[in-house]
Design brief:
Blueprint lengths: L6 H5 L7 E10 L2 E11 L4 E6 L5 H8 L7 E6 L2 E2 L2 E4 L2 E4 L2 H10 E4 L11 H11 L5 H14 L15 H14 L4 E5 L7 H16 L4 E4 L3 H7 L2 E6 L2 E6 L1 H6 L4 H11 L2
Parallel strand pairs: 3-10, 3-11, 8-9, 9-10
Antiparallel strand pairs: 1-2, 1-4, 4-5, 6-7, 11-12
Bound molecules: adenosine-5'-triphosphate and magnesium ion.
């Protein structure tokens, strides 16, 4: 599967975005890292977030599932306004239960997998659905095994993370996110920690998820993947969205000088 036809998804775009952000700011002390981001992602969209190191990509993603709290701005997830209250010059959580609930709907896959080292792969997948979502063990086990089949890891279900390659660990981490039945998947450089020969197997799993119509926001330095798989590219520069659009438009060049420079630097290696 080389490219994804998203015209069907676009045609059915619902009125309520999966994620909606207005004038999002994030400060660490006196340093403003995000400087007013306006962003929407609809159901079924695959948005790649590109930008130089330090431009705020991870911070932005972490604000979306409230691993970081924005300093200012508004955030809605499937139309539900996240309850954030002013606290000095920052915001604080207004409703802890809401945040716990929304976090399971917006799952994150990290660069360094973040699997529990003392649990087998299967136990890693079952932990949150059983203990956080309080779903039945038997049902979760069936679903976890089905997910491991999907990512090609069922024969490693009883292995510990240290016994797996990086690519296998990352596929396990993706399966673990999927077992939570999230409505949005966030990926923060999911292949950056992998040896080059293992990148492809993880990108394949992600391409398959995209082809299924999953809503995905992906921070990546894999430019070919971003160009071929995304329905939209967002280019961050110094905490602001510098350019945004269809991959074919942005990659053709001429939309944003800064984006063109970014890509040129990239191509030079
Ligand atoms: N917890 C923190 N405390 C202070 N500053 C931070 C913190 N987290 C991030 N920053 C700063 O915010 C800026 C944006 O960081 P962020 O990690 O979001 O960038 P990034 O675009 O993901 O970069 P990279 O491509 O290197 O991962 C950087 O200058 C970074 O040093
Ligand atoms: Mg980052």
């Amino acid at each position: 599967m080389a490219s994804v036809n998203r015209s069907v998804v676009a045609h059915n775009t619902p009125a309520v975005p999966a994620i909606s952000v207005n004038d999002l700011h994030k400060r660490y002390g006196t340093v403003e890292v995000l400087k007013g981001i306006d962003f929407r992602a609809h159901d079924g969209e695959v948005v790649s977030i590109l930008g130089a190191s330090g431009s705020g990509k991870s911070t932005f993603l972490r604000c979306l599932n409230l691993l970081e709290l924005p300093s200012a701005g508004r955030l809605q997830i499937f139309g539900e306004k996240v309850n954030l209250r002013p606290s000095g010059s920052n915001l604080r959580i207004g409703d802890r239960n809401q945040v716990d609930r929304l976090r399971t709907q917006v799952a994150m896959v990290f660069q360094n997998f973040c699997l529990w080292s003392h649990m087998t792969v299967l136990e890693n997948l079952m932990e949150a659905p059983v203990h956080v979502q309080r779903r039945s063990r038997g049902q979760v086990r069936d679903e976890a095994e089905a997910m491991l089949k999907r990512v090609g890891l069922i024969d490693r279900a009883k292995a510990y993370p240290a016994q797996l390659s990086g690519g296998q660990q990352q596929r396990a981490a993706i399966a673990r996110a999927l077992v939570m039945k999230p409505r949005v998947l966030l990926f923060d450089e999911p292949t950056s920690a992998l040896d080059p020969e293992l990148v492809g197997e993880v990108l394949k799993v992600m391409r398959d998820l995209a082809a299924e119509g999953r809503t995905m926001l992906i921070v990546t330095h894999e430019m070919a993947f971003a160009r071929d798989v995304s329905s939209r590219i967002v280019f961050l520069e110094q905490g602001r969205i510098n350019a945004e659009g269809l991959p074919q438009e942005l990659f053709r060049g001429g939309v944003s000088e800064r984006f063109d420079q970014f890509i040129a630097r990239f191509n030079q290696g």
